[in-house]
Design goal:
The complex is a heterodimer of chains A (113) and B (114). Chain A is built from no helices and twelve strands. Chain A has 113 residues and is an all-beta fold. Chain B has 114 residues and is mainly β. The chains are: A mainly beta (113), B mainly beta (114). At the A-B interface, strand 6, strand 10 and strand 11 of A face strand 5, strand 6 and strand 9 of B.
Chain lengths: 113, 114
């Protein structure tokens, strides 16, 4: 079945460092792909998405490109801030119900000043 | 516009008991989904409700059941609680017929089973 695999965390960076969080997927066809962020004590928030191959999703300085050749959707940011400390989830739609999603296990990012 | 609100925020139950978690969907959203997020894991889809009927289900046993009310609010019920049911339970709402990624998530209910 469809699945998402994320790099293991935690990822610990200094402020202004470059961030990459790897995500690969297994799916039938070419589903939309998503990155969600979960700040401490809060629910999930959509960070960015891409709906077709070669699309680049971007938001708040984060970017991810939909690569069908490598079945990947890696999240990147050129210069992280302390406020980016959170858990990041890669996701794709499930065929079990309309808007339901399959999430990866999450990658914890910790940024220090 | 209000977001998704869940109650309670935390609760502790004993193994074998039953629990009911509640969710008020965002204004204008008529579809509600529930997820279970175990510690250190990503959310797993439990089921989705639309027009008071189950509209899809993940790989969860029948002791996980739900309800949706005419005002689109929803309940998640878990019977015969097991220790492994300890998790953060997330509710998400969306307008019907929208593409994935539109859901608004609540902050969750932290359930601890002892």
């Amino acid at each position: 079945g469809d699945s998402v695999t994320q790099m293991e965390g935690p990822v610990t960076l200094s402020e202004e460092a470059f961030l990459t969080i790897n995500c690969t997927y297994t799916a039938t066809g070419y589903p939309s792909l998503f990155w969600y962020v979960q700040y401490p004590g809060e629910g999930l928030q959509l960070l960015l998405k891409a709906t077709k191959a070669d699309d680049k999703g971007s938001n708040k300085g984060f970017e991810a490109t939909y690569r069908k050749e490598t079945t990947s959707f890696h999240l990147e940011k050129g210069s992280v801030q302390v406020s980016d400390s959170a858990v990041y989830f890669c996701a794709l739609p499930t065929n079990q119900a309309g808007t339901a999603l399959i999430f990866g296990k999450g990658t914890t990012l910790s940024v220090s000043s | 516009e209000t977001g998704v609100t869940q109650s309670p925020t935390h609760l502790i139950k004993t193994r074998g008991q039953q629990v009911t978690l509640r969710c008020s969907s965002q204004s204008g959203h008529n579809t509600v989904s529930w997820y279970q997020q175990a510690l250190g894991q990503g959310p797993q889809f439990i089921f989705q409700y639309y027009r008071e009927e189950e509209n899809g289900r993940g790989n969860f046993p029948p002791r996980f059941s739900g309800l949706q009310f005419p005002n689109y609010s929803s309940e998640l019920n878990v019977n015969a609680l097991e220790l492994d049911d300890s998790a953060l339970y997330l509710c998400a709402s969306s307008p019907r017929g929208t593409a994935p990624g539109i859901d608004t998530f609540g902050s969750g209910t932290r359930l601890t089973v002892v």
